[in-house]
Each structure stands twice: as structure tokens, then as C-alpha cells.
Amino acid sequence: MCLKISYIAIFILTFVMNTNGQNLKSKVDNYFEYNNFSPQLNGYLGGKLNMAINGVKARNIMEIVEPFKHKEETWMWQTEFWGKWITSAILAYSYGKDPELLAIIDKAYNALVATQTPDGYIGNYRYDKHLEQWDIWGRKYVMLGLIAYYDMNPLKNKKAIEVTQKEADYLIKEINQQGKSIVQLGNYRGLASGSVLEPIVLIYERTGLKKYLDFAMSIVNSWENAEESQLITKALNGVPVAERIPLKPGQPWNLSGQKSYEMMSCYEGLLELYQVTGNKDYLKATELTAQNIIDDEINIIGTGSASECWFHGREKQMEDIINANEICVTTTWIKLCNRLFLLTGNPKYLEQIEKSMYNALIAGLTPDSKTYVKYPSMQGVRMYSGGQCGMELNCCGANGTRAFALYPKLMYTKNDEALFVNLYEQSTDSFYTESGNKVQIQQNTCFPKGDSVVIVVNPEKSENFTIALRMPSWGGVTQLCVNGFDYETYGGLEYQKITRNWEKGDRIFLKFDMKAQIHKLKNYFAITKGPIVLGRDARFKDGFVYEPALLPKLNDSSIELQENKNITANMFLSLTVNLSMGVSSDVFHTQPRTISLCDFGSAGNTWDENSLFKVWFEEPLDITEITRVKD
Residue range 335-352: average pLDDT? Predict the structure, then answer.
């Protein structure tokens, strides 16, 4: 039988341990399991992931733990930093198995546990401020971090789940003593506090103790019983996320119910509850919410929000927006899509993750890898973000690597039907077939710079099994060969499945259609190549990056790009396009000009005023096109 791996930290578990050492099986299995092994990524994303992991290792974890010793906080959110950091670190450790990182993780765990009070509290809030502001939100992250540590080695780290239970028990006791619904506690209409649903369900999965399931159900009931929340009912009734819990006149901003990060965190918990209860409304409500986010909020770089709230942002993405595209929103969106992909097997969630990774997340990682910029805009200049809560670290700096370290886990997934190749990157991995045969699989590619991938399959013994290749929506497959022989492909498939008797050294060749695509929105257009968004950058010195541009007349949505000979340092991808630029009629009646473009992740990456950049081109109004009488 194929060996199954557990789904660690804040991610989906199919089998878990209860206090008696028995397995508590979820009512709902994942469509996919992560593969047995962790692939090693040796391409572009692999390099960025290594940078992100170095940033995690360099963090002063004792500075993060210090406020837990003093418990003087009254309103800020620093409590979340430890949980975000350690879940990032544990995911990073599961990728590289770095013993130095493991030692840091152990140190961080022991330092935090030492701050737990006899009543069970781990937090930094003053006692008379418990349950206010970000206190429950912070306790959520403490529990998520402790659970992630426990999951690394449940036998060795048994104390971690006991510590987590004490934290949860004390929280339940305090809430019961106050006699309030959880939606009445904390910020953003109870979204922040209600997101504690996730670790509570995870504790139930690991202990089998009904009191945690009962508390989880009380949280969901409090959403539905509050006239304003109703996260399930409103999702099922098609209420857009930007209108789920609108502000009332005179209410302060911290009561907004459109808080994107916190809302998605609640739905993450709802997916956990779906797994243990089998209530299909929980899954349906989350899927409908995710689809609305895709349709109405997610922009071309794979993220969204302004001041961390949903605002029907997709249609407004070309504008200058204050505090747009927060990395914590991007990270949570990637995590939500990851869970939905594993549960449903729908690759549309992979498409979202791929887009977010190659664009928003990479653009947010600072060159020194120490942190992430909070708000990677689509125009202007890149600007470093400062610390928060009196620390050098901020929320996004603690959080971003949680998303990055998911990518290797998603490269290859498996079920009883096939091994699924979901993402394309220079990499090596192994898996076991149902018979126990070990198979190494290696991708050789310069994707996404190039348009082809060679996959070498090396089973220890020849065997008949199925490999399923994801067919990306941004371009079809123009050629598929196995050992040099063309393989018949069919349009519209999400995965191309190849079932055969695989021998050592068998080779799959894939070639993608990666023609550049035009995306139009109102009187603006943007250009993508494969999953990568392109933009202008002042370093090319080929004109003012904000000048208008006129598209040539196209037969379809594709446009021709050329390799850029005007090479600029520190750019991953550099291409040129011919466009008519400016607003003068004299310009528009002459030949188009050659304009240089680079990938969004590289745009502005000098991180100073010398690198102005912009993604969306504005098209000038041509009145003759409006008034011309057609023949």
C-alpha cells in the first residue's frame, strides 16, 4: 500500500491521534494526499524558497517570545508573530530537514511553553484585557504553532498537545464566564476571534475529546445566530465577500466585516469542521466564497484587498490604491486554495496558487530575504515595510514563508488513481506505487522562462501505473511525447493521464503554448506570459513608464513578444513588445516603438526611487473609433 503522510500544522489531517493512542478518522477524506517525499526544487522558485527559509532562520525568536513573559499588552497583535513564525519554520524544516533549523524550532517551542501560567494562558495581554482586541486571535496562532510542533513527532512531542489543550480549556472557561458570544469579542465583527475555530477542530482531531467539537460548533452557531455574520448562510445565498458584513454609519473601521484575511481564516476553520462532521454546507459555503473572491477580488498578480478588506477590488486594480495586496492576505489565500485543492481535486485552486506565487509573493520578498513588504503594489516604487508592535518584525514578515513552503508539497500529489504532476519546476522527487515500488521522478526545465518540460521517470522495477499531468489554463499543450513518440492529447482536459508500463529512464516531453496574452479591463490592458505578469520598469530607460499605449489590432488576445537585448541586472525575465506610445496623433500614425518589459517579481526590485514600475497600460481615447460610420 502507498504510505500516507499526515497533514501538519494548520493543514488538513485525515488521520490523527487521540489521547488513548487510537486513530480518529475524519468523515471526509481528501481527494489528494501530499506525496510521500518532499521534492527538492532547483529552479527559480526553489531559489526564492531558499531565500525565504534563510530569513526564517535569521529571525531573533527570543525577541518574539519576550512579551509573553510580561503580559502587558492592551490592544496590539504581536501575539500572532510566534505562531506565524514557527509554522513557517516547521513547514520549511519539512522541506529541507535542516538540523540547524530544527534546533531553532525546539528552542522557540521551549521558550514559549515556559511562559504558560498555571491556569493555562499563553499570551501577552494584561489580565483585565483578556478576550479584547487581538487576544483570542493571538491565542489562535499560539495553538496553531503548538499543534504544528506536536505534529512533527507526536510521540516525542506529546507534551505540546497537552499544553495546547490547557490553552484551549482556559479560553473556553473565560468565554463562558463572560457569557458573550464569540462574535461579540475582539475586532472586525468577531471574524478575528471566530477564526480560533481552526485550532479548536485540530485539537479535537488529535484528542477525540467531544468538548472541543462542542466548542467548535458553538462558534459556527454564533456566526449563524448573529444577524450580521452568517458566514455560511450569506455565502450560500451569494452575498459577495465585499458586502458580507457592511459597516454602519459612524462605526469605526476596526468593526469592518469585510476584513479579508480574518474572513478567509474563518473559512479555513470551516473546512476543518467539514472534514470531521461531513456537513456539505460547510464545504459548499467555502467553495462559493472562494469563487466570489476569484471573480470579484483577486487581481492579475494573484492577490487582493485594500487596507486588508475586500472591496470589489478586481475591477479597480488599475488604480492607485492605498495599502493594497497585503502579503498576509496573499498567504491566507494560498493556504485556503491549498486546502480546497486537496479536498476537491479541482486544479483551478492550483492555478490561483501558481499565479500568486510567481507574482505577488515573490514581489513581496525583500532582497535580503529577512522579511516581506506588507503591500506590493502594481505601480510606483517598491518600499520596505517597518516593524510592528515595537519590534523589527511585522505580521507579513512572520507570515509569508508559510505560503512559500507549501509549494514543494503541491508539486506532486497522489491518490489511488495516479501520481499527479501539478506544478512545473526544475525538481526531483520520489513516490511509492500501491505495490510499494519506489519511483524517482525528475523534472528538467527552465520553465517559466522556457516553454518545455522533460520529466524522467525512474522506477526501481518496471510497473504499470498512471501519471497525470496538469494542463494549465494559461496555455494549452502543443506537444506531448513519451520516449520520442507523440502522445495523443485532448483539449479541455484539466489533467492529461498517461497509463503505461514505466521503465527506468522513460521520458515525457511537454511543450506549452506560452504566447503572451492581453488582459483588458475598462480602458487599460496588461500583458502576461504563462503564469507571469509583465510590466514596465524605469531601469530600461525607454520612456516614461506611465505614458499611455495603444494596442495594435489583434486577431485574438495574444501579442508577440521578443527576447530583450536590453538586459538589466537582477531581472528574471526580460522581453520586448511593439506598441504605439503617447497621446499625440503624430505618434499614433507612425511605427510602434519597442518597449521593454520584465516580470512583476523583478519590477522595481532595486527598492528605491530609481526603479519606477507599472503593470497596467492606459489606452488613450481615440474619438475616431467611437464616431466612425461603418461601411
Answer: 97
Please report which confidence band the pLDDT of residue 627 belongs to, taking 50, 70 and 90 as the band edges: low
- Are the C-beta atoms of residues 89 and 104 closer than 8 Å to each other? yes
245 is in which domain, residue-wise? 15-413
Find the helix or strand (DSSP H, E) in which 508 lies: strand 506-512
569: its cell numbers: 541586472
Measuring CA to CA, which residue among 324, 349, 348 is closest to residue 338? Answer: 349
pLDDT at 80 over 90: yes
Return the ∠ at Cα 159 (arms to 157 and 162), rounded to 5°. 130
Residue 609: C-alpha distances to residues 230, 382, 538 (Å): 45, 8, 10
Helices (H), 345-469: 348-356, 362-364, 395-404, 407-411
Same domain, 376 and 425: no
Last residue of one domain, picked from the residues 456, 483, 512: 512
Peptide bond into 376 cis (omega under 30): no
pLDDT digits (tens, 9 = 90+) for 365-376: 998 888 899 999
CB-CB contact of 89 with 56 (8 Å): yes
Kindly provide the residue ranges of all beta strands, DSSP E only, lying in 320-426, ordered along the sequence: 379-380, 412-414, 419-421
* Structural domains in the chain (count): 3
Alpha-helical runs (H) found in 226-259? 231-236
Mean pLDDT across the stretch 471-487? 92
Q: What is the pLDDT of residues 53-74, one digit of tens each?
A: 999 999 999 999 999 999 999 9
Please list the alpha-helical segments (H only) found in 18-60: 44-58
Residue closest to 144 by CA, chosen among 102, 183, 200:
200
User: Across the strands, what pairs with 83?
Assistant: none
Cis peptide preceding 240, ω within 30 of 0: no
The answer to whether residues 306 and 237 touch, using CB atoms and an 8 Å cutoff, is no
- Beta strands 419-421 and 463-470 are parallel
Residue 617: helix, strand or coil by DSSP? strand
* Residue 400 and residue 365 share a domain: yes
Residue 9 lies in a domain: no
Where is 614: in which H helix or E strand?
Answer: strand 613-614
Cβ within 8 Å of residue 74, ≥6 positions away: 125, 126, 129, 132, 133
User: CA-to-CA distance for 528 and 513, rounded, in angstroms?
Assistant: 13
Same-domain status, 399 and 420: no
Grid cell, residue 472, equals 494549465
pLDDT in tens, 529-587: 999 999 999 999 999 999 999 888 777 889 999 999 877 888 999 999 999 887 665 55
End-to-end CA distance of the chain: 70
Strand pairing partners for 51?
A: none
Same domain flag for 111 and 155: yes
Is 293 in the same domain as 395?
A: yes
Residue 550: Cβ within 10 Å count: 18
Dist CA 325 CA 376 (whole Å):
6
